[in-house]
Amino acid sequence: MTTATETETGAAASAMQTPPVVSPRDWEAARQKLLVKEKAQMRARDALAAERRRMPWMAVETAYAFEGPAGRLSLLDLFEGRRQLIVYRAFYEPGVFGWPDQACRGCSMVADQVGHLAHVNARDTTVVYASRAPQADIARLKRRMGWTMPWVTITDSFDADFGVAEWHGHNVFIRDGDKVFRTYFVNDRGDEAIGSLWSYLDLTPLGRQEAWEDSPPGYPQTPPYKWWNWHDSYVEGAAPDKRWVEVSDAGEAAFREKAASDRKAAGGCPACSGEMK
Question: 59-84 pLDDT, tens per residue?
Answer without folding.
Answer: 999 999 999 999 999 999 999 999 99
